[in-house]
Amino acid sequence: MKQNRILLLLMAVLMQVAAFAQHSPDFAEKFMKQHQADSTLKCITVSPKMMEQLVKMHDDNRSDNIIQAIAKLKSARIITGNADHYEKALELLKKNPQRFTAGKEYRTEEQHGIFYTRNDRKGNTVEFIMLCEEPQHDKSTIINLTGDIDNEFLCFLYNKSF
Prior knowledge:
Blueprint (H helix, E strand, L loop, with lengths): L1 H21 L4 H8 L7 E5 L1 H11 L5 H8 L1 E9 L2 H12 L5 E7 L4 E8 L5 E10 L4 E11 L1 H10 L2
């Protein structure tokens, strides 16, 4: 009887560990949790189906490969806030260099930003983060995509972002 209780307890603990291991929060989730008391931050989630519909509506000549890449996304989150959130997000990304890799930077007259990616153990890109700051408007934007992100889609994002 006592062995059965121990076995059941052990199974329950293992199930909890397995469930926790399957959920790896994305950057947006971590950032929002870290700044949950900040009422100036807003986060919206856009479903892949909605993104696909928006792409189809605005450009009928869009590559089928891009539409397929969008369909492979698991989530898209857009965080907006004051310009100081840009530095806070950059700080969080830099704290985790083993997880996030800095990519291309960009600068225009009105805005500047940087791209980050996260790869899985096989080297596939599974998360894309774009930080953007508009100092004149006291505004920052974080775009966080997760899913199966291929190189063609990354090039599309890099080239269409500014």
